[in-house]
Predict the 3D structure of the following.
Amino acid sequence: MKMLPRAKANALIEALGGRSIVFVGLMGAGKTVIGKQVAAMLSLPFVDSDHEIEAVSRMTIPEIFEAYGEQEFRALEQRVILRVLESGPQVLSTGGGAFINENTRAAIIAQGISVWLKADLNLLMERVSRRQNRPLLKVADPRAVMADLMARRYPVYETANIIIHSRDVQKDVICAEVIEEVLRHCLSATEGQTV
Ligand SMILES: Nc1ncnc2c1ncn2[C@@H]1O[C@H](COP(=O)(O)OP(=O)(O)O)[C@@H](O)[C@H]1O
Ligand SMILES: O=C(O)C1=C[C@@H](OP(=O)(O)O)[C@@H](O)[C@H](O)C1
Ligand SMILES: [Mg+2]
């Protein structure tokens, strides 16, 4: 992991105020691994909403889908994310459907800087094929499901504050781009404000 100069990390944390850096995007885009590394580079706390949901429910994500269904999962996800967002600054990686839920999205917009990790279909499919922990893809044709989710979710992900092209390069490269863009966004967002 490439270290970030302390002064730069501090400048970004100050510019965040109490807000969180929130990763959104489809399954396999890299939200969990990139979020974790960005948090480490900034010495900020890291929360992954799926991990948090698993901890509070003492069940895995597939078990929750199996036992209660997607709707209940979304309600739980919303509760967890709203609570987590109260304690920024931090890095929060969400599950792919979180930003699609209107209430969850409103909270992210109000209390976070949203970063869409955008990747192409081939890369997403290659990455999700490594683990069998995504219930929405436990179907005969997961590629078709992913393509359908792309069509339906992209118009929503597009409303994120920042878009980063997640591609087949080292994580360090993606993390450095995220940090640059978040800093740029925060500084430009404060420009023109009356003090
Ligand atoms: N830039 C990258 N280079 C190499 N592997 C990556 C990169 N980004 C993500 N991955 C891998 O892709 C898989 C999915 O990443 P993950 O963070 O779980 O995605 P998400 O949380 O968006 O579903 C993991 O195996 C992860 O290690
Ligand atoms: O896209 C989705 O609806 C989901 C994405 C998953 O998280 P990742 O995006 O981290 O894989 C997880 O929250 C759940 O399986 C549902
Ligand atoms: Mg994840």
DSSP finds nine helices and five strands in the chain. Residues 17-183 form a domain with the Rossmann fold fold (CATH 3.40.50.300). The mean pLDDT is 96.
